[in-house]
């Protein structure tokens, strides 16, 4: 079922007609024309049953004895099919904050994750008649989609291969929004945005994983330092060769490289050693 436009006419014109019929019925009643007055009063009741008011950013789905006739989105007072009933649904943009969920990532590590979902109703017929309670449906499907996305990726990627929940927040948010939209289309809901609001390792492994992160950071830093040290040593030897400052044999080159590597890579300041004699 999809939303359609319901029959409607200007409510102020219908209201003027109601007042005219009401005044006429009173006049006829005073003049003892009871049958015609009763008929006009009945007409007033029938017309009054078709009056409804639509607030801004609201839709009202009109049903007539169980049959969906359409929806009215335009704000104002309207006249529609008499003796019909209407159900309202808000078209305003809303957000839903999920609870902190405890799930396992793709590597089996327990993590805590939560998200905020910004959505709005775009099809009032689907929101009211395709699901039992569209707001509850959004909440349940949001948590289900969040669990599904969280189990597809690792919390962190220590080898820089593929996506991770912590390192690729934009990509994860986009996939979460797509996953939600595919689930919520049946309820006539459009997902405007979905983003993670909380992401952390579960308490029982948080300290161990923090140590792992620190160790990985130290290793990565050491790799950069070693790469830089090797490059600097190569540049120093090449510069000495080009300038002709001193001729170094292979053994002296090895000694020089060793000294430069120690001075650059060491965490403590290097202590100079003065050699007063021959190298050999």
Automatic annotation (TrEMBL):
Keyword Amino-acid biosynthesis: no
Membrane-spanning parts: 12-30, 36-54
Protein name: Regulator of protease activity HflC, stomatin/prohibitin superfamily
Domain of life from the UniProt record: Bacteria
Gene Ontology molecular function, alphabetical: peptidase activity
Keywords: Hydrolase, Membrane, Protease, Transmembrane, Transmembrane helix
Example of a GO biological process term: proteolysis
Ranges of residues in domain Band: 49-213
InterPro entries xrefs: Band_7, Band_7/SPFH_dom_sf
